[in-house]
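Exam revision sheet. Question 4 asks you to relate a sequence to its structure. Input first:
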Amino acid sequence: MNNAPAIPFHAGPELSRAINRTDFFRLLKSAAQHYNFDHFALARISEASAPFAERDVVITNVAERRVGLFITTLKEALGTVRAKSAQFLATPVHGRSVQPEDHRSDLVFNEFLSGVFLFIPLFTPEGRRYCLVLSGERQEPDQSEVADMLLDTMRIFDKLYEEILTQEMSGRLTQRESEIVKWTSEGKTSAEIAIILGLSEHTVNSHITAAARKLDAVNRVHMVAIALRNGLVS
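Answer key, structure tokens:
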């Protein structure tokens, strides 16, 4: 089990050059790895869920099909009540997930079990709540490490807010999002769109998630229907 490094991450030049989701994905992944965490998820806080739902995730390196399990394990690590209240806190909280006695590893493989979860609350200037969740096989962080992680996370989040979130809050689709929604409306899968546009499938899915969030859609079909109804794609 690894210890967190003694020095903070401090993104430096990479942060100043970050302008899109891919840049911030790389930054958050690098920061997570620097502190010996394997997974990260940046999400909007939803008062209706504890502490957030799958559709609230903004950027993550957790596979799409595993996000639900990631959130469930987070709740177990922090405790259901603590996870519910974590969304209202202004300071990070952490805990370790444990394998339930009735868990059948041969039925459900959970790569997040026995790992440390760190929940870092974040806020936009308008008071909107977000969080960054880190998980991995490492010792629980001490106060000094948490302070470094909080500082790094806030610096990255502030830049992310400036470059990405303000545009998302406006409800306007970017050119790339509109392009991907159009291909989706024509029945193309994420893998097919990735080939057409020369992107990774992960990037395509990130754009679809962002577009669906802006349009307040519950799934891809709903997203396309809203886009067509409002003339956002032709």
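Marking note for examiners. The beta strands are 39-44, 57-60, 93-96, 116-123, 129-136.
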